[in-house]
Design a protein that fits this description.
With 596 residues, the chain is an alpha/beta fold. The chain has helices at 19-30, 67-77, 84-104, 143-157, 223-230, 258-261, 275-278, 288-300, 321-327, 329-339, 404-426, 439-450, 457-471, 478-495, 509-533, 558-561; strands at 6-15, 35-39, 55-56, 118-126, 131-137, 161-164, 166-173, 179-186, 191-202, 235-236, 241-248, 265-267, 312-315, 348-357, 361-362, 368-373, 376-386, 391-392, 475-476, 542-543, 563-568, 573-578. Strand 21 and strand 22 form a beta hairpin.
């Protein structure tokens, strides 16, 4: 196929039209910049739409709360791997970004006095861990849906240009290493375009589809991570993947933590509320890594439910049909559609399911992508930003608190937007495109077009998913992770020999899927290599070999492993950088053992 590469120029190109991409594009479009937002799917189909529970912000509408408590909870939730400067920034900005959305018309649930309704959520406490507090600002159990539609409408009003059903393929870096745009495929025609930009922002979401069982949409293939890795940018803390405690057994569909926030409880086969044993204070509302491990422990010890004793039950019927229909209407529908259960009458089978990546492309609090250079740990890459789940600021560390993901999108999407606007005032010209701007992309496409034999993309993708599920699950062992490293390295060879049976150009979904596998393998290898190298248990990375001991409570080894992992695709190598323990204005939260 002879490829005609057309070039277009923009002030900013944003890859991804979910919550973070659209929050950033809104700041930019309102400032009068020429913005292109690329999305594989229609913007309101982005995966932010699936977020259910709420946005964490210490509004204090229901009970006494402030950002200091939110800050402490987030640091503790992260198992002290979160950077405290970024966490402080996020928690302080939280009320402001929620009120911003309220002023845009987002339909939050209301209290009788008209303030935004807030529900309790996992790991949210008052007075530094003393008791649960209502911090999750919710629109029933469709908060992400309400937020995404609100942001889309505002972007339409601000005249943002959306390129719908376009897939970004590679970053373009010049001789100085600055990012000057992206190459992208227009699905409808199969044509390749160069989109030249003064600034490129990656907002591509997570890579949950590297696992077989996931709450993530099929589009979540880690495209931004793949683009960054191929361009020589490291991926940070990719060993940390959150298992959401309540995925529907057998289907993987998410049931929000808002269920437990509203008072639902987890039961084992004896009908016992087992979380009281593991977390006497917070019970079912302990952080997610903790609840997932407890559920897995119950199943391991033979107290699982069902004929195969392979799940536990989430009981909601005691909340009453009225509360369920008002606060959890989508969960009611999911029960019918995916579990054949009426949750107003009987419990629903649940099992921990891959949900969220804590790691990603390393950035600072302005959203600028940063890399290591000698002793400098955070050197900015000019022209490149990343926000949302694909980035790692690190506010989530080794385990994210519920509702901090929507907050992360809003705070850092807005911050990146503001930072880019300031930069745009200073930069009048585009940098020159290098001569070989589209070469890597064209080589990838022509390899697919010229292959006469090889495997079907989905067969390779499914083997990646099965390997990751087996070797990087809720409970990990050193032996299993080491085997996984070898398996994934073998799979990478197979990725290089994928064959397309259908070579047509117009809306060829097989070609898109084959290109996505290039991104899946980067995310998968980053995860398994980083995980096998981390010889401790911390947050969501729980390894049987590194169990609770007097020297290392909960298996956490702060002496050797209190640091961020950086994985480089080139050479498949690792390096490390320190955790930022110093907040912006307050005292540091010192390391201590996590109990709930």
């Amino acid at each position: 196929m002879a490829t005609q590469v057309t070039k277009r120029k923009f002030d900013v190109v944003i890859v991804g039209a979910g919550g973070s991409g659209m929050r950033a594009s809104l700041q930019l479009a309102r400032a009068g910049l020429n913005v292109a937002v690329l999305s594989k799917v229609f913007p309101t189909r982005s995966h932010t739409v699936a977020a259910q529970g709420g946005i964490g912000a210490s509004l204090g509408n229901m009970n006494d709360d402030n950002w200091h408590y939110h800050f402490y909870d987030t640091v503790k939730g992260s198992d002290w791997l979160g950077d405290q400067d970024a966490i402080e920034f996020m928690c302080r900005e939280a009320p402001k970004v929620v009120y911003d959305l309220e002023h845009m018309g987002m339909p939050f649930d209301r209290n009788p006095d008209g303030t935004i309704y807030q529900r309790p959520f996992g790991g949210h406490t008052a007075n530094y861990g003393e008791k649960a507090v209502e911090r999750a600002c919710a629109a029933a159990d469709r908060t992400g849906h309400a937020m995404l539609h609100t942001l889309y409408q505002q972007n339409v009003a601000a005249k943002t240009s959306f390129f719908v059903e376009w897939m970004a393929l590679d970053l373009i870096r010049d001789a100085e290493g600055d990012v000057v745009g992206v190459t992208a495929l227009e699905m409808e025609t199969g044509d390749v375009h160069i989109l030249q930009a003064k600034t490129t922002l990656l907002a591509t979401g997570g890579a949950g589809r590297i696992f077989a069982a996931s709450t993530n949409a099929f589009i979540n293939t880690g495209d931004g991570l793949g683009m960054a890795a191929r361009a020589g940018i490291p991926l940070e803390d990719m060993e940390f993947w959150q298992f959401h405690p309540t995925g529907v057994h057998g289907a993987g569909v998410l049931l929000t933590e808002g269920c437990r926030g509203e008072g639902a409880i987890l039961l084992n086969s004896n009908g016992e509320r087992f979380m009281e044993r593991y977390a006497p204070t917070l019970k079912d509302l302990a952080p997610r890594d903790f609840v997932s491990r407890s559920m897995d422990q119950e199943i391991k010890e033979g107290r699982g439910c069902g004929p195969n004793k392979d799940h536990v039950l989430l009981k909601l019927d005691h909340l009453g049909a009225e509360t369920i229909m008002k606060r959890l209407p989508s969960v009611f529908e999911i029960g019918h559609n995916f579990a054949n259960v009426d949750i107003t009458k009987e419990p629903i089978p649940v099992v921990p399911t891959i949900h969220y990546q804590m790691g990603g492309i390393p950035t600072n609090i302005n959203g600028q992508v940063v890399v290591q250079n000698g002793d400098v740990h955070n050197q900015v890459i000019n022209g490149l930003y990343a926000v949302g789940e694909c980035s790692c600021v690190s506010v989530h560390g080794a385990n994210r608190l519920g509702t901090n993901s929507l907050l992360d999108l809003l705070v850092f999407g807005r911050a990146a937007g503001n930072h880019i606007v300031d930069f745009a005032k200073k930069s009048k010209e585009h940098k020159e495109l290098p001569k070989d701007a589209a070469d890597r992309t064209l080589a990838r496409l022509s390899r697919l077009d010229n292959a006469s034999s090889g495997e079907y993309a989905q067969d390779v993708a499914n083997d990646i998913r099965a390997s990751m599920q087996q070797h990087a699950g809720v409970f990990r062992t050193q032996k299993s992770m080491d085997e996984g490293v070898v398996k994934v390295a073998e799979l990478r060879k197979r990725v290089g020999s994928i064959n397309l049976k259908d070579k047509s150009k117009v809306f060829n979904t097989a070609r898109i899927e084959a290109l996505e596998v290039d991104n899946l393998i980067e995310a998968a290898q980053a995860t398994i290599v980083s995980a096998a190298a981390r010889h401790e248990s911390r947050g969501a990375h729980t390894v049987d070999d590194y169990a609770d001991s007097a020297e290392f409570p909960n298996g956490r080894n702060d002496k050797e492993w209190h640091k961020h992992t950086l994985w480089y695709s080139e050479g498949n190598r690792l390096s490390y950088k320190p955790v930022q323990m110093k907040p912006l204005t307050v005292d540091s939260v010192p390391l201590k053992v996590r109990t709930f």
